Amino acid sequence: MPFSLLFIGLALLLATLSYYAVETPLRTQSARLKQVLGYGLLAGTALATGPSMGAININQALSPAPLPIEYQRYADPATICHGQIVDDCLKGDLNTDKEVRVLGDSHAAMLDHFFDQLGKEFRFKAGIITASSCVTIPGFDYQRIPECAQNPCQTQINQAQEHLPTAKVIFLAASWDWPLVSTDFQDALKNFLFTLIQAGARIHVMEQEPLLRKNPIRVLRLQSMGLAGSRINIDLAYQQANPNLRSLASHRAGITKLNFEASVFFDFAPFADGNPLYMGEHHLNEVGAKPYANAARGAFTKIIN
Question: Which CATH number do you get for residue 93?
Answer without folding.
Answer: 3.40.50.1110
